[in-house]
Amino acid sequence: MRGPLYLTRRNLNTSASLLHENPLGLPRKPGLPPQIPRRNGPIQKRPIPNVKKVLAVASGKGGVGKSTVAVNLAFALAMHRAPDSDRRPRIGILDLDIFGPSVPKLMGLETAEEPRLTKNGAIVPLTNHGLPCMSMGFLLPKSADGQSNTDTAVVWRGLMVQKAVQQLLFDVDWTGDQAAESGLDVLVLDMPPGTGDVPLTLGQLVKVDGAVIVSTPQDVAISDVRKGVTMFKKIDVPITGLVLNTSHFICPNCTTPHYIFGSNKSFHETASNVGAKILGELPLVGGVSEASDHGVPYMLVNDGNKEWKSTMKNIANDVWEALH
Ligand SMILES: Nc1ncnc2c1ncn2[C@@H]1O[C@H](COP(=O)(O)OP(=O)(O)OP(=O)(O)O)[C@@H](O)[C@H]1O
C-alpha cells in the first residue's frame, strides 16, 4: 500500500501512478517521450536545456550556510567579467532542496505567485534582483498566515523525489527574455544537505561540471565534508573546491579576526587529505543573516562587510575558471 502523498500543485494529477510519473503536475503534450531514462540499459546523462555549465553547491551537514553561499555565489558569478567576454555571465539558481527550500526566502520571493507555464508546459523561473530562480518552494501552497510558502512539509517517498528532481532539472525554461542570446552560462544548484536521493538522481541524470562543498569549522561538519567528497566522486562530479563558512568573526570594534570555533586546522587538514582546493574562508558577519531574512543577498548590500564580499568574489573567480 502506498503511503500518504501530500501533493500541492493546483493542477496536480490525482492518480497515484500518474503522480509518480509527474509529481509537479506539469501538463505534457501527448507524444512527448517519457522523461526518465528507463531502467533497462545504461542511463544516459542529458544536458539541462539552455544551460551551459552546472555547478552544485552542497554540504555534508544542514545549517552550515550552504544556501547562503549558493545564492551569493550566483550573484558573484553574475558580477564576474570574464577576460574574453564583453558581457556579464547569465546565471540562474535551482533549489534542489525539496524538503527544506531556502531559495524563495533568500531571493525575496517567499510570497511570490506560482510560476507560470509556457505553452509547452515548462515552468518559467521567477526572477528577483535580476536573477532567475526555481524552487520547490514556489510550488507549495502558502501557509495559513498567507505569508510563506516554504513552511509546508513535503512528504514524499524516494521515487516521487526522483521524479520531482527530474522535472525541476529538465522542465524549467531557462531561455530568459532575450531571444538573441538566451540561456544560462551557469546554473547554480542549491543541493539538500547530506548524501541522500537527490544528489544520486542528479548524478544519474545530468552532467554536473563542478561541486562546491560548504562546511563550518566544527569537527562534526568537517567529518561530513569527506562524505560529500566521496559521494561526488562516486557520481563523477569534479570537486571544484571547499568553502569554509563562519571561519572567524570580525568584531565591529576592532579589525582582529576571532577564531571563535577554534582554529581552522582540521578543515585545512581535511582539504589536503581529500585533495580539494580551499576556495575561500568566509567570516561570520551579523549582516549576512539580517540581509537574508529580508530577501536581499548579501553581495547586493552596498555597505556590506568588505572581507566577506571580496572573499565571495574571489570564490566566484576561481569557480568560473574551473568551469571554463
Ligand atoms: N557567514 C555568515 N555570517 C553570518 N550568518 C551566516 C553566514 N552564513 C550563513 N549565515 C546564516 O546561517 C543560517 C543558516 O544558513 P543557510 O540557510 O544558508 O544554511 P544551510 O546550510 O543552507 O541550511 P539548510 O541545511 O537548512 O539548507 C542563516 O540564518 C544564514 O543567514
UniProtKB/TrEMBL annotation:
GO terms for cellular component: mitochondrion. The keyword Ubl conjugation does not apply. It comes from the Eukaryota. One of its GO terms (biological process) is mitochondrial respiratory chain complex I assembly. Keywords: ATP-binding, Iron, Iron-sulfur, Metal-binding, Nucleotide-binding. Residues 21-45 are annotated as: Disordered. InterPro entries: Mrp/NBP35_ATP-bd, NUBPL-like, P-loop_NTPase, YlxH/NBP35. One of its GO terms (molecular function) is metal ion binding. Belongs to the Mrp/NBP35 ATP-binding proteins family. HAMAP family: Mrp_NBP35 (MF_02040). This is P-loop containing nucleoside triphosphate hydrolase protein. It comes from Cerrena zonata.
